[in-house]
Hints:
By secondary structure, the chain is α/β, with parallel strands linked by helices. The chain contains 21 helices and 26 strands. β2 (55-57), α3 and β3 form a beta-alpha-beta unit. α5 packs parallel to α6 (170-185). The termini are far apart.
Amino acid sequence: xxxxxxxxxxxxxxxxxxxxxxxxxxxxxxxxxxxxxxxxxxxxxxxxxxxxxxxxxxxxxxxxxxxxxxxxxxxxxxxxxxxxxxxxxxxxxxxxxxxxxxxxxxxxxxxxxxxxxxxxxxxxxxxxxxxxxxxxxxxxxxxxxxxxxxxxxxxxxxxxxxxxxxxxxxxxxxxxxxxxxxxxxxxxxxxxxxxxxxxxxxxxxxxxxxxxxxxxxxxxxxxxxxxxxxxxxxxxxxxxxxxxxxxxxxxxxxxxxxxxxxxxxxxxxxxxxxxxxxxxxxxxxxxxxxxxxxxxxxxxxxxxxxxxxxxxxxxxxxxxxxxxxxxxxxxxxxxxxxxxxxxxxxxxxxxxxxxxxxxxxxxxxxxxxxxxxxxxxxxxxxxxxxxxxxxxxxxxxxxxxxxxxxxxxxxxxxxxxxxxxxxxxxxxxxxxxxxxxxxxxxxxxxxxxxxxxxxxxxxxxxxxxxxxxxxxxxxxxxxxxxxxxxxxxxxxxxxxxxxxxxxxxxxxxxxxxxxxxxxxxxxxxxxxxxxxxxxxxxxxxxxxxxxxxxxxxxxxxxxxxxxxxxxxxxxxxxxxxxxxxxxxxxxxxxxxxxxxxxxxxxxxxxxxxxxxxxxxxxxxxxxxxxxxxxxxxxxxxxxxxxxxxxxxxxxxxxxxxxxxxxxxxxxxxxxxxxxxxxxxxxxxxxxxxxxxxxxxxxxxxxxxxxxxxxxxxxxxxxxxxxxxxxxxxxxxxxxxxxxxxxxxxxx
Length: 747
């Protein structure tokens, strides 16, 4: 290969609708249309052949004109044919997309709950199956490089990407991400059918102010002991690629950090696959962070740090010329270029692109629209029952219900971002860019449709996204003749920085609607459709609700799942994968009294001393703790035993019995924690090391075995500087399951 051919393999550019947003002089891609459009041919010739680009991105807004499975397949084949047929070496391109909850762009696609909802299932097999369904969609449409899953931890619910994470606990995020990656890839590191991507390495989710793509200040011990295990789970599952954090850590942009990419990722975690930057992050080293004087300098810094592929995404001319200039001036070695290109070409071979580079457009629509039953099962399992006073739920299917609220019948609210387009399904009153067009509304089952399908006595009171006083009055009037009111509230669709919220709380108009319905004296069931925990406003709103369900962003079958749970055909089994803050405002004296805690102040150590400011935690006082979730039956655990002595390199085995003590079948989640009574380095009072999810018939019991490698208890040893290696401290530990505990020794 020539140097130019190698450099082109290291670049990923956008061709959306077979065009980009550069000037005609930089690609002649503007306004390119169908397959016979001469501008399209010029665009493909210039990007793929003249500048030898090796990878294409269809990003959040880069849908083909025919935004169906078939349309995606035809666009992919057009680009792939041109690359193979016209290039000197006939090297196929690798095609990147963001399929974060199914392949969300074709507007008729089946979509799963967003990751935060999948996290609430605590179901690794379901996460694997959802990944496999996504793989089916991508293999049919050509997206052979999937920029998912997000392995960042949920640490701050002000952040607009909170719903893309699995959980706040490293072990849960690691387990679900690993399972999902196995499903997406359909094979290990050496034999993926689709390349999954662990992102965003590392610590991206905890900026200094909860905003996207801004600086993080993370002690190295905190980074290594809390954040990195979540990414490591994905790597151990065989993830083919890793995407780097867009932000900076401790004043160093992650894209230019050799310590992060080479030392931590490659040397310590042992990753041998392809590393890609996030969108525009290599040029950002010059234009945003100003750590490089020009684009060639930014390229040199990123490549020498360990970047293999730059998601540039437009200036392929600047990339190619800049990296070639860097090699000629000795700023980047040819050996360094060769290392990246070997990894890229190996991935293309492992994906089978040299042998089977094309897809069948005739099969694409069916693949994209398949797996609705699986999506409904995922939504069923995700829904988390937070309150059920007086056994209000389940409801009778003959109950007279009035349903209202801005999210009862809006697909855009229900799906969230990365659905049809980057900022979600068309919403005429949502003042953001980059939504899908008005003629591409997915055929999803809304909450209203789901309830009406199950109960013929459901009536509705529509509201605007911002509920008017007249609509509140109409809902109150309708409740007068109803047995109960179901009010569906939450958030509008958003993605990334456009979803950053300094105060994540239900809007005042939605609070007013709930309070007015509660004042009628009729039972009120609140269904929250949102990508993060939200403040409810006055405590009276929560105490006045007879039942509260968190449905997250439940996907295209989410409305049917809400009906399943409300009417009891499904016993709720979701458990919070994150801590739910107790208020949206922080009043003086909270740390002393254990009063409400603010969003963005999630517990970093799961404090055992609520209501105090002592101990290693923050005195956090949540409304609902991590792992909380109610059922229509009851469960008990008993008979905990643990291996009494184990080596630092061994595996601890835990056994206990779970019993369904109620009158109906159900599923539950049992977390397994470890407590370390005395430690040289401060450790959380409880560390999640494993869990089980199981279904039991009424009155049934089952003995459960949970094992975990003792290495999960490793910490960065040493002093404040965090310069020591990670190791497991010898000594006494305690397994904790519910109220039970069992001691063991690590030697």
